[in-house]
Q: What sequence folds into this?
């Protein structure tokens, strides 16, 4: 079989998904969801989770947290009060969507089940799935959008394509709305959605136009996300200003001071704080830890012209700024020899919402499993990213005859573009922030392996003297 265009990887040679065993894959995915929910019942909740649920019940306020997640949670909390249904929805959407992708690849049922089990057992993912965190919701919606787009590639009905496309774009918007920094990861998926809807246009000839349309669509979606997360509905009144960037700039000023030896941080009297003191309290793992380490209360609570001071500090000490950002990013991707930071949150924080957790027999089994990998390579995100890049290179070396290489590039592109801006804006090295990036990379690996298997099979079939 000879494939001559890039389009062949997305359309030609596709094997239909809904054959024997597909239903079993979905049942298995739901069983994993149930296992996670029972072990963490009613669903582990950190401060972020508690605040999201509080705003879902009492009315959104904005500030540090995008209100979109609270709007969604309000629906589930009305049906079944508490975090349980929200957790089931997030994990279920993620694993069922991944199962849908596996079914569309058409592997034997036992292979699909093994891959789904391995995906679910990745400690870097499982630890986050135990907690009702928006990182899972972002990944769930992105995975669903990718699965829908993958389905479009094999659909022959124009009407069905339109419905699938509308759904894929809508769920992509939902994923973007959960986090202010999620938009970059949506671009490759949008490009793929336009790609599989291009009609008879050659992929190479239309790639630039497709990318331009996708970027325009991304700007439109981002504008809608901004509106949804900036105003209270249905009143349409302006919410509190998001303070995430303010916290990041203050953290950066501490880091720049530490690495430059020149203080850019004032004390409460308006005098520069001793850089040696800042070095003692500075912690690249989290800005909150750094703040809590200021036991003497030297750092001023308010900073005049923070943005201007932040910009000036970066331009005066770019090397120190990059060193600070690299230190935080190294914690983020696990590029160090210490244990990985914040692999899960195995409890429900104290709250006034009536939500509490009582450990059961499954709780220590899953929690101890996750925690046991804190020093392992399986919790170091950079390992997955390196494996994804190497796998994708191997796919493109095969040439146009390699199936699923476009899909692999889309999954990895989304994962890495989601990761890229975090070098500059991440406030901490929480493992959970890698959730979609690791998930997308694993999807890339699935597509690459499927492509290599199909390539070898097709080559054997087309070889002279091969068995029929």
A:
């Amino acid at each position: 079989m000879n494939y001559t265009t890039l389009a062949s990887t997305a359309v030609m040679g596709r094997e239909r998904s809904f054959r024997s065993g597909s239903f079993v894959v979905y049942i298995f995915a739901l069983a994993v969801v149930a296992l996670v929910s029972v072990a963490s019942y009613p669903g582990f909740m950190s401060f972020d989770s508690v605040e999201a649920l509080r705003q879902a019940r009492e009315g959104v306020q904005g500030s540090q947290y995008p209100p979109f997640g609270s709007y969604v949670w309000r629906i589930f909390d009305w049906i079944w009060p508490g975090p349980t249904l929200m957790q089931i929805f997030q994990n279920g959407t993620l694993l069922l969507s991944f199962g849908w992708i596996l079914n569309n690849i058409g592997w034997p049922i036992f292979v699909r089940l093994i891959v789904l089990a391995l995906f679910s057992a990745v400690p870097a993912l499982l630890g986050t799935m135990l907690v009702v965190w928006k990182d899972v919701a972002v990944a769930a919606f992105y995975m669903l959008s990718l699965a829908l787009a993958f389905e479009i590639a094999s659909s022959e009905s124009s009407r069905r394509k339109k419905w699938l496309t509308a759904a894929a774009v809508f769920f992509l918007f939902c994923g973007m709305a959960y986090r202010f920094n999620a938009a970059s990861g949506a671009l490759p998926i949008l490009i793929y959605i336009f790609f599989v809807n291009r009609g008879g246009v050659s992929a190479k000839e239309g790639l630039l136009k497709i990318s331009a349309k996708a970027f325009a669509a991304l700007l439109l979606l981002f504008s809608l996300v901004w509106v949804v997360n900036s105003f209270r509905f249905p009143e349409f009144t302006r919410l509190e200003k998001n303070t995430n960037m303010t916290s990041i700039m203050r953290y950066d000023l501490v880091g720049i001071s530490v690495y430059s030896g020149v203080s850019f941080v004032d004390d409460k009297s308006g005098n520069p704080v001793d850089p040696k003191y800042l070095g003692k309290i500075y912690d690249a793992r989290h800005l909150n830890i750094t703040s809590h380490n200021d036991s003497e209360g030297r750092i001023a609570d308010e900073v005049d012209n923070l943005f201007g001071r932040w910009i000036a500090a970066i331009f005066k000490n770019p090397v120190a700024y990059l060193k600070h950002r690299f230190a935080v990013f190294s914690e983020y991707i696990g590029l160090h020899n210490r244990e990985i930071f914040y692999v899960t949150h195995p409890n429900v924080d104290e709250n006034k919402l009536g939500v509490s957790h009582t450990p059961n027999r499954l709780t220590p089994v899953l929690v101890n499993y996750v925690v046991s990998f804190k020093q392992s390579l399986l919790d170091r995100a950079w390992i997955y990213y390196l494996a994804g890049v190497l796998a994708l290179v191997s796919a493109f070396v095969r040439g146009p005859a390699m199936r699923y290489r476009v899909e692999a590039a889309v999954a990895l592109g989304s994962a890495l573009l989601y990761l890229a801006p975090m070098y500059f804006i991440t406030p901490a090295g929480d493992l959970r922030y890698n959730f979609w990036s690791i998930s997308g990379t694993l999807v890339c690996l699935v597509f690459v392996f499927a492509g290599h298997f199909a390539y070898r099979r097709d080559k054997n079939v087309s070889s002279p003297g091969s068995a029929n």
Notes: The CA atoms of residues 101 and 150 lie 7 Å apart. The chain has a mean pLDDT of 91.
